[in-house]
Design goal:
Length: 327
C-alpha cells in the first residue's frame, strides 16, 4: 500500500485524520514545518512548507492518497497576505504536487464558512447545505475569504481531472486540540472562568473523531468535485455553555451581551492589535462571523458517504477531559 500524505497533522483535525489512518493500517507521511513534530503517532515526518512547491513535490512522491488538511487558521493577522499565501497559494502548490505524483485521490479540507446560510423564516435561522449559494463578497474576513478562494482552486483542479473530494467540517470539538481552535477556546475559557458573558450566535458542533472518519469516507466513497459537510448538531452558544456546565458542574454565564457591545470590543481590540502586533482578544473577524448562526445539514454526507456522527455529548466530554488534563 502506498503511503497517505497528511498535511496539518500537527494540528487538531489533521492529527485525528493521521491517527485514524494509522489505526486503519495506512502508512502515513506527515508534512511538518521546521521542527514541528506529530505527537504520539507512528508516522513518517517529512519536512516541507505549503509555500515551497519543491518540498511538496518531494513529499507527495510515491504517495497514493493526499489529505490536505493544513491551513493558516487565524482570525487576525497583521499581514493578511500570509493567509492567502498559505491557504490559496499553498493549496494550489499541494494539488500541483499531487497531480505530478499521480495520486489516486485527494481529500481537501475546506470549512463550513464556505457554505451558504439562507435567510430563515418566522424569526428562525436558516439551515445551509452544499447547494446553498454563496459568493466571495459575503466572506467575513480574510480567513474565510482565503478558504473560499482555496476551495475554488480545489474545484478547478477537480474540473481539470484531478480526483479531488472536498469536505467542509463544521465546529469540531474534542481531544488533542493543541492550539486551541476557536471552538476549543470556548471550552478552555469556560473551564478557566474566563467567559463571564456570551453573545447570541450559533455553531454546528461535531466530535473531531467523526470529522476524521468523514475524511476517510470521502476518500473511499466521495465523488470528485463534490463537497460534503461534516457536522452534527446545530446549537446556540448559550446551549453549548449550558452543556459545558452540565458536564462540569460549573455555572454557565447568564449575561447575554448585545451584538453592538461585541462589535465595539472588536473594533477597539483589533485596532490596538494593528498598533502593537499582539493578537486581539476579540478579533473583528470573529465578531462578524458571530453575527450569523452557522447552522447546516450533513444529510448529503450521510446519504452518499454513510457518515453517521455520534452525539455531541462525546465531543464535550472529550474536550473537557483534554483541557482539564493540561498542565
Amino acid at each position: 500500500m502506498k503511503p497517505a500524505l497528511v498535511t496539518g497533522a500537527t494540528g487538531f483535525v489533521g492529527w485525528h485524520v493521521a491517527r485514524l489512518l494509522t489505526e486503519r493500517g495506512y502508512k502515513v507521511r506527515a508534512l511538518v514545518r521546521g521542527l514541528g513534530r506529530v505527537p504520539e503517532l507512528e508516522v513518517e515526518e517529512f519536512e516541507g512548507d505549503l509555500r515551497d512547491p519543491d518540498s511538496l513535490l518531494r513529499a507527495a512522491e510515491g504517495c497514493g492518497l493526499v489529505f490536505h488538511v493544513a491551513a493558516d487558521y487565524r482570525l487576525w493577522s497583521k499581514d493578511p497576505e500570509e493567509l492567502y499565501r498559505s491557504n490559496v497559494g499553498g493549496t494550489r502548490n499541494m494539488l500541483n504536487a499531487a497531480l505530478a505524483a499521480g495520486v489516486e485521490r485527494v481529500v481537501y479540507t475546506s470549512t463550513v464558512g464556505c457554505i451558504g446560510i439562507p435567510e430563515g423564516g418566522g424569526g428562525r435561522p436558516g439551515i445551509g447545505d452544499e447547494s446553498t449559494p454563496i459568493a466571495e463578497h459575503s466572506m467575513a474576513g480574510n480567513y474565510k475569504r482565503s478558504k473560499f478562494l482555496a476551495e475554488q482552486v480545489a474545484l478547478d483542479f477537480a474540473g481539470a481531472g484531478l480526483p479531488v473530494v472536498i469536505v467542509n467540517p463544521t465546529a469540531p470539538m474534542g481531544d488533542h486540540d493543541f492550539k486551541p481552535t476557536p471552538t476549543g477556546a470556548i471550552v478552555r475559557d469556560f473551564l478557566n472562568g474566563a467567559m463571564p458573558a456570551y453573545i447570541d450566535t450559533g455553531l454546528n458542533v461535531v466530535n473531531v473523531r467523526d470529522v476524521a472518519v468523514g475524511h476517510l469516507l470521502a476518500c473511499e466513497k466521495g465523488v470528485p468535485g463534490e463537497r460534503y459537510i461534516l457536522g452534527c448538531e446545530n446549537m446556540t452558544l448559550g446551549q453549548i455553555l449550558a452543556e459545558l456546565a452540565r458536564y462540569t458542574g460549573r455555572r454557565a454565564p447568564r449575561i447575554q451581551l448585545p451584538y453592538a457591545v461585541a462589535w465595539t470590543a472588536g473594533v477597539l481590540t483589533t485596532g490596538l492589535a494593528q498598533l502593537t502586533g499582539i493578537p486581539p482578544r476579540v478579533p473583528m473577524e470573529a465578531v462578524r462571523m458571530a453575527k450569523k448562526k452557522m447552522w447546516v445539514s450533513h444529510q448529503k454526507a450521510a446519504a452518499q458517504l454513510g457518515y453517521a456522527p455520534s452525539s455531541p455529548e462525546t465531543a464535550f466530554i472529550d474536550a473537557i477531559n483534554w483541557f482539564e488534563a493540561l498542565p
